[in-house]
Amino acid sequence: MVAGVPWRIEEGGGPLVACAVHAGNEVRSEALRHMAIRRRERFTEEDPFTDQLTTVAPTSIVVHRSRFEVDMNRARERAIYRTPGDAWGLTVWRAPLPPAVRQRSLRLYDRFYSDLSTVLARAGAGGRPFVVLDLHSYNHRRGGSDAPPADPAGNPEINVGTGSLDRERWGGLVDRFMADLRTVEVAGGPLDVRENVRFRGGHLSRWVHAAFPGQACCLAVEVKKFFMDERTGELDEAVWRGVREALAATVPGVLDEIDRMQARPLRRRTPVVA
Q1: What does the pLDDT read at residue 144?
Q2: Residue 67 pairs with which residues in a beta bridge?
Q3: What's the chain's average pLDDT?
Q4: 132 has which bridge partners?
Q5: 198-237: buried (b, 16+ CB within 10 Å) or exposed (e) per residue?
Q6: What are phi and psi of 106, to 5 degrees?
Q7: Less packed terminus of the chain by CB within 10 Å, N or C?
Q8: Given the DSSP bridges, would you call strands 189-190 and 185-186 parallel, antiparallel or unpaired?
Q9: What is the pLDDT of residue 265?
Q10: Strand-strand pairing, 193-195 and 158-161
Q11: How far apart are CA 175 and CA 197, in angstroms?
């Protein structure tokens, strides 16, 4: 555990780390005074319940701070939303945020990445390959609960973002991870799991691959909010249980693939920026 910061870190050892950086909805009081957006509006673009998914890994990081104060999955210069175009058309601030308030939020951002670097260095101690599960959820009923859902053709139940990883090196692990997700039936059938259809991964994935080139594999896992009502937060317990079981089913394969990776020489390459 880390004291004095709005995230929880639990380290259990081993080469698997799970992060939920958009699970929280907390906002510092001084930032909240400047916000135009209400908590209910923020909720629709946050990733509730994703903190529960991190339990699949011995080491987990859960951020309690709302992305609407500071977004840990965007580059530093974009981590605090400025315009509606940065925030799905939503007006976040009543007026431009005072520089001092902005800087205090960015200090949290810097501290988060410092703490993340420390955690991942331990996960990869001795040059060991390691995997980070960057866990998110995404909306597919923006018109409301009674509106038709977004076209499933472009909105898989689970999107695995791999836009910045070396697929030549990590492709076997990625393919096995996706196949294992499909082994658990959810809502009457195997999950629709696809790669880079809806998202290719955000800043956290790119940062991990740049900071630990060739050693780290960060999978940006986006679960469609078919397990909940996007507006009210009402959870479909049966579907959600299936999603959690499916993610847990990937762990033995991920660990097995990491063991295989240790036997391969590390080929240094320039990280891809998606």
Answers
A1: 78
A2: none
A3: 94
A4: 17, 218
A5: bbbbbbbbbbbbebbebbbbbbbbbbbbbbbebeeeeeee
A6: -70, -25
A7: N
A8: antiparallel
A9: 62
A10: parallel
A11: 15
Cβ proximity of 9 and 21 under 8 Å = no
All domains of the chain, ordered by start, with CATH? Answer: 7-262 (3.40.630.40)
- Chain position carrying tokens 């101690």: 125
The model's pLDDT over 230-257, given as tens digits with 9 standing for 90+, comes to 999 999 999 999 999 999 999 999 999 9
Q: Global pTM?
A: 0.94
